[in-house]
Amino acid sequence: MKRIALFLATNLAILVVFSIVINILMAVFGIDYGSTQGLLLFAAVFGFGGAFISLAMSKWMAKRATGAQVIQQPRNDTERWLFNTVARQAQQVGLTMPELAIYNSPEPNAFATGPSRNNSLIAVSTGLLQSMTRDEVEAVLAHEMSHVANGDMVTLTLIQGVVNTFVIFLARLIAGAVNNVLRGNQENSRGQGGFVYFGLVVLFEIMFGFLASIIVMYFSRQREYRADAGAAKLVGANKMIAALQRLGQGRIRNDESALEGSLAAFGIRAGKKSASELLLTHPPLEKRIMALQQGRF
User: Fold this and answer.
1) Has residue 276 got a pLDDT over 60?
2) 99, 144, 205, 224: which is the annotated catalytic residue?
3) How far is Cα 174 from Cα 190, in angstroms, rounded to an integer?
4) What are 70-94's pLDDT values in tens digits?
5) 138 part of the active site
6) What are the two backbone dihedrals, phi and then psi, of residue 176, each rounded to the nearest 5 degrees?
């Protein structure tokens, strides 16, 4: 749960920071808190703005976070094989060759990120290369390539932007209504509610932010099934099943994922199982394997 808790806490912290900035900017620009349209506009600007800024910086942030080294010119047989495999898969799905990187981690994992389908990064861990056969690594690369081909980074950003917007908007709308009741409708609480109103906003943002995370996690799990299906079409279902089974063995040895936040959402595997699947970015490996065995692709 540590990874999930950190992911949720980070998103909630961002919402609280946005809350402070929005209050300041609305006061500076004289935007009426009583105007629902004005509040919704600001909520959308910050809800989508933060999500798209993160998307635009995603490749740079991923390299910094993992220390991934981009393969500019293959230096050995393994790098040449990786490069040629990714290039072939990119051609199969009609994409520009993504940047390919390796990062140092004993955990068998890989991830894809980037602001667009033709401006992306695929990275694999040293642990994955050491623990898997080439057929299994090929399937993992196909899974990440399918994420890129499906435009999952942009899709998840749009979903995050929508839920952020409604968290910001509804938190203020409901906080204003509650504050009005507490103050006996004596004045416009959203405009002059002070610390009570602001405290209610933070409380409701935490509550709605948690519920919004459940929605985002649901869409994230659906993406994993689609990426598995895409990999099955590219390299065959048997290779993808074998890769997932190998990941299951790696999970027993090392249950915590080193990838955090959005990187964890786009990794091939997640950390330990949560008490509820509602908070998982990935479906359980057993369900993913069953979907492939049943030909759901």
Assistant:
1) yes
2) 144
3) 10
4) 999 999 999 999 999 999 999 999 9
5) no
6) -65, -40
